Amino acid sequence: MKRLMLMLLLVASVAASAQEVICHRGYWDTEGSAQNSLRSLVKADSIGAWGSEFDVWMTADGVLVVNHDETFEGITIETAKWKQLKNLRLKNGEKLPTLEQMLKCGKSLKTRLIVEMKPHTDRAQELEAARKIVKMVKKMRLEDRVEYITFSYQGMKNLKELAPEGTPVYYLNGELSPSQLAELKVAGIDYSIKVMREHPQWIDEAHALGMKVNVWTVNSDRDMEWCINYGVDFITTNAPERLQQKLMP
Ligand code: MG
Fold first, then answer.
1. Rounded to two decimals, what is the model's pTM?
2. How far is ligand 1, taken at its centre, from the CA of residue 123, in Å?
3. Which residues partner with 191 through β-bridges?
4. How far does the centroid of ligand 1 lie from the alpha carbon of residue 11, in Å?
5. pLDDT of 138
6. How far is ligand 1, taken at its centre, from the CA of residue 157, in Å?
7. Which residues contact 94 (CB under 8 A, 6 or more apart)?
8. 10: CA distance to ligand 1 center in Å?
9. Mean pLDDT of the chain
10. What is the pLDDT of residues 39-85, one digit of tens each?
11. Is the pLDDT of residue 249 over 90?
12. Burial class (CB in 10 A: 0-12, 13-18, 19+), 194
């Protein structure tokens, strides 16, 4: 009986420790940082966050740029040349980073790199972006540290095909149930808190199919607690230290 109790406790603690914190656009809401900056990646790593997310676009001349919006200072990234962007600065004074700079920075850190490929207007350009991203990650020998996420259905399929077998690829768009995604063999769903509150059954459904569940962008105490209680595997947040506190045993 004692042994059984011990085993149950062990199982419970393993299950509880499996919930991980991902910094949304890096850990930016802190001194000296900015969204999607090199600094935000270093900061995420410095607090021991499991992962740090950032967004990637490709310019018309094939440079992979890290930025959330499709525009930066009024310039549309996917139709711009890199020379139009390369001297522009983020809010913390850093230059707008390329994916190459971000990966180089991440190379010496421990946090996992959650690469969001943005849906591009031109499908051919998006496919090229996927090819270049995967190639760069390989060249930098970061294949074991990178996971991909995207709102683009085709982009998800492209990344799945291009990345080495077993590389986690997650879908962000929220309209497909885990069973609808199962045959694509994606790692799981990475949906908004709004979508997940409407479909809480998708958490168990995903787990039963061997998939993981990531939820974004979980900032309020109420949403954090909801995700923790429902057994969400990865919680993406702008407030990583507050979430870490809640996950502490
Ligand atoms: Mg993102």
1. 0.93
2. 19
3. 215
4. 33
5. 98
6. 18
7. 34, 37, 38, 39
8. 35
9. 94
10. 999 999 999 999 999 999 999 999 999 999 999 999 999 999 999 99
11. no
12. exposed
φ, ψ of residue 195 to 5 degrees: the values are -60, -45
CA of 146 to the centre of ligand 1 (A): 14
| 7 Cα: distance to centroid of ligand 1 (angstroms) | 39
* Percentage of residues of the chain with pLDDT beyond 70: 93
Q: How far is the CA of 180 from the centre of ligand 1 (A)?
A: 23
Q: Which two tokens stand for residue 194?
A: 């709004």
H-helix segments, the chain: 2-17, 38-46, 82-85, 99-107, 123-139, 153-162, 178-182, 193-198, 201-208, 221-229, 240-247
Structure tokens at 127: 């496919």
- What is the spatial distance between Cα 242 and Cα 227, in angstroms, rounded to a whole number? 14
